[in-house]
Specification:
The chain has 131 residues and is mainly beta. It has a single domain, classed as Beta Barrel (Thrombin, subunit H). Helices cover 11% and strands 40% of the residues.
Length: 131
C-alpha cells in the first residue's frame, strides 16, 4: 500500500504534467461533477499553472491525482484571470481558478440509475480550499 502524498498532480494525455503541493491547491465540489480548482501560490508556481492550463481549449481532458490516491478523469471548462495580491503579512501571492467537470464512468456492476460509489464526487465531501 502506498502512502498518501502531499502533492496534487495534473496530467494531460499529451504527457504534460503539473505537480504542486496540496497547500497551494483548493477544491470546491459543486453539482453534477462540476468543480472549481483554486490555486493560491507564488508568482513562480503560478507561471507553471498558467503554462499548464493556459493553452487548454474547449473541453480538453486531463487527470488529477490528489495525494497519490489515483487519477480522476476531468474535462477543462475554463480559467479565471490571475489575481495578484498581498496577504496580511506583506507576502505577495497569485490566485487563479480553473473550472472542470469530472468524467463519470458508468460502473460495470451497477448499470442502473444508482450513483456509482467510485466517482470522485461521492468520495469527497470536504473542501480543500485555502482562500
Amino acid at each position: 500500500m502506498s502512502e498518501i502524498s502531499e502533492n496534487v498532480i495534473f496530467k494531460t494525455d499529451h504527457d504534460a504534467k503539473l505537480e504542486l503541493n496540496e497547500n497551494f491547491v483548493g477544491l470546491r465540489i459543486r453539482k453534477d461533477g462540476i468543480m472549481s480548482i483554486n490555486f493560491r501560490c507564488s508568482e513562480e508556481n503560478m507561471d507553471r499553472v498558467i503554462e499548464f492550463f493556459g493553452s487548454f481549449k474547449g473541453s480538453n481532458p486531463f487527470t488529477m491525482d490528489i495525494g497519490n490516491t489515483g487519477d480522476i478523469d476531468c474535462y477543462f471548462k475554463g480559467i479565471s484571470s490571475v489575481l495578484r495580491k498581498t496577504d496580511e503579512t506583506g507576502y505577495p501571492y497569485c490566485f487563479v481558478s480553473v473550472t472542470a467537470q469530472e468524467l463519470k464512468k458508468p460502473n460495470k456492476i451497477m448499470m442502473s440509475s444508482e450513483k456509482s460509489s467510485h466517482c470522485f464526487s461521492s468520495l469527497v465531501d470536504k473542501q480543500l480550499d485555502n482562500e
